[in-house]
Design brief:
By secondary structure, the chain is α/β, with parallel strands linked by helices. It has 8 helices and 5 strands. The model has no long low-confidence stretch (mean pLDDT 95).
């Protein structure tokens, strides 16, 4: 059985047994917090437990590296919607040690794309259309600096209300230990 069929078979039992009832909540975050986190598989359950958040408590946005790569991209739009439409009052950017985005190089990713069938012609077309692959596929060298950069991009965004605290943390994916990088309450006072 392929993965999709496994998921659909499980879902039938999930619905039949009414397992969804334990997850009932509404769309508004109880703790009025939106978290921008990495998509790393180790954080799926660890991060919420390490931060003492449960179903219905927060809005969680996941991106590669917990990076806000464009001020008017989908990540920033999601944060703004969480604040203006869904009642979030604080933002927390959470990067992590041993991140797959650390030291990622565009050249290596481009080679992997070619090996999987993306033609040089398509890459050239995108390049000559203005896509800067070194910027688009760039990772980071220091997770703390990356978190600070995303925090600053959110905090200084022209559509971000000034009363929203934007915090930055780094989590250890082995222990769940959180290290404070930016205290958003202090940044509001500065």
């Amino acid at each position: 059985m392929n993965l999709l069929n496994q998921i659909l078979t499980h879902n039938k039992e999930f619905i039949k047994n009414k397992e969804y009832e334990q997850f009932k909540t509404d769309k508004f975050p109880n703790k009025r917090l939106v978290i921008l986190s990495c998509m790393d598989t180790r954080l799926v359950e660890l991060l919420p437990r390490a931060m003492d958040v449960g179903n219905g408590d927060v809005k969680i946005i996941k991106t590669a590296g917990a990076i806000v790569s464009h001020p008017f991209g989908s990540t920033m739009r999601s944060i703004l919607v969480a604040i203006y439409e869904l009642g979030a009052e604080e933002v927390c950017v959470v990067g992590h040690h041993d991140c797959g985005m650390a030291k990622i190089k565009a050249e290596s990713t481009l080679e992997k794309m070619k090996a999987r069938g993306v033609s040089q012609e398509k890459l050239d077309l995108l390049y000559y259309s203005g896509i800067d692959f070194k910027k688009f596929l760039h990772g980071f060298d220091c997770v703390e600096d990356s978190v600070k950069h995303s925090v600053e991009m959110i905090h200084h965004h022209p559509l971000m209300p000034k009363d929203v605290a934007v915090h930055g943390l780094v989590i250890d994916p082995k222990s769940g230990k959180l290290d404070l990088v930016v205290n958003g309450y202090e940044a509001q006072l500065a």
